[in-house]
Amino acid sequence: MTATTSRTIDTLLGENNILVVLPHAQKKHPDDPQPPMTILGRELAARLGCYAVINGKYKPAIVNMNDVRAIRKRRKITESFLVRIREFKEEITENELLPLVLIIGEGGPLKEQKSDILLGYGQGERGRPDRPHRPTMSPSQLAKIRVALEDQGFSTDLAPMDSSLCGREEFCLNQLFRQKDFLDSFYDPTVRSLVFTLATERVRDSETARRTARELAQALHPFADTISLVRKVAVDAIEVAKPQDLRYIFRVQGDDQYTDMVRESYIDELARSIAKNGLLHPLVLLQKKDGRYKILCGFRRFQAIRRLGWKWVEAKTYSEEAFTTEDFFNISLAENTKRRNLNPIEIGNFLESAAAELGLNNTILAERFGESLGIGKPGAKVSQSTIHKYRKLYQIRKRGESPEIIVDVINDQIPFAIAAEILAPIADPADRDSLYLEVIKPLSPTRPQLIQIVKLLGKIDPSLSQAIGAPFVQKALARAVDSGQRAGSFINALQRKTEKSDQNQQEKIDKKVTQLRQNFFGKKAGKLDFNITRSKRGKKPALTMHVRLQSDSMDEMIDRLEKLLADKKQLAELRKFLE
Description:
Blueprint: E1 9-12, E2 18-22, H1 36-48, E3 51-55, H2 68-72, H3 75-94, E4 100-106, H4 110-113, E5 117-120, H5 139-151, E6 156-158, E7 192-198, H6 206-220, E8 230-234, H7 267-277, E9 283-287, E10 293-297, H8 299-308, E11 312-319, H9 325-336, H10 344-358, H11 362-373, H12 384-398, H13 403-410, H14 416-423, H15 429-443, H16 447-460, H17 464-469, H18 471-481, H19 486-521, E12 530-537, E13 540-547, H20 554-566, H21 568-575
Helix pairs in contact: 1-6, 5-6, 7-8, 9-10, 10-11, 10-12, 11-12, 12-14, 16-19, 18-19
């Protein structure tokens, strides 16, 4: 784990019952690249797998972080320091383990301190108000810890009774969970805590701090009781506010434009099921670097649980640093497809996220995830074109367009081939929605029929929405809905209209071309000498001109052609045939 150079309060999640607290871990000198105490805390947490709260932000001159009275005066520090300590303690307790809190600080030189580590467990003298005895650990447990430390080469001693290092004052961190009336919701007599005061030589520089952390981890390892893989996690510790918190969530979540329509997002129904039967499948969470969690799998279960008002939830937890990003994509995919396959929109979401996060093209996405996603033809390799179709379809949702199409794809109301191959490639949302809502939904055409309909509508107007809005087309739609063969009836009406229109248009073109041929090329010129035909280049209408040039009349024909092209009035009339 890399130490941070910024001034922060670090909160690190753990896997056992030990919570390490470093009240002061700032730089000793401005020129220091990294604070040795911060390095020690992070290295110890990483090696021991324990929870940690490390203050690298507030210096003693600003606030004494060993003094709860001083912290309580500042709400922000209370929430970022004391409350996080309590939250980690509660997570340990909720998982039926006894918390062991180790408060680690730096003391003086070894020649003054006389031991590598001074230990404070709240020791004092009974009956002495100036030296009250408030133990936070049993003497037998303390003795075991001292033996383990000395086995690793540390010299230890109890903190002197006349020092503040004993951790007995009710306002010190060591008493945080012992005072009933000092801080609300902190009292917990099951917590064992201990103050470690290290000699300066033990945290002299970065390398020494790392070595000390390694030796401390070795000594404390026997006292760590591991939390099971499926653990209790505070619902409030799961964060979903930032896009990065949802980077592995591919299920439809009920976006604002789909909330009332998407069947998959009916959280109330899921909440009722969980309330009745319990949580049958734990959430799968990732431990974030800020000491909280984000969801790998189970977003809708999380929403339902939060709606039920649960404070704790069972979850499998993984460290973000334990696996690669691709591993997490595979874990999420495996977890999400255990109970049912992803729908086409969710598949597109997965592929878009994997492409962005892992930098993969469609061919590699097909190779790595095609089989697991269960797409394509059974027994055949998934093609990159299939991947492209799912991603293209998802782009509609990503842009916030055509919500009814997305909802019907999710609810299996549209064949994937029609949605991905015909609707998704339509660039204009108005054209796409008009075709779907006014043609596909009421007429239910087959894929071949729909291809024919789109082609015929294109002859009426390049804009589908404009073509569908034309009075004749609206009348044809109304008649088709009431007929026995709805799609077939509509196609026949369009064909009659477009054939007649094409015929009329061609007659006008033929008439105009005959006129131009006679006026510019002579009455004896025929179609082989000069002709113009109407065609399409892509979706746009085009005019193709044919001129025959012969060796004995080439100059004359070119001269006549130049006169035609220079005649703006004639060209304007020809241009009308392109509208």
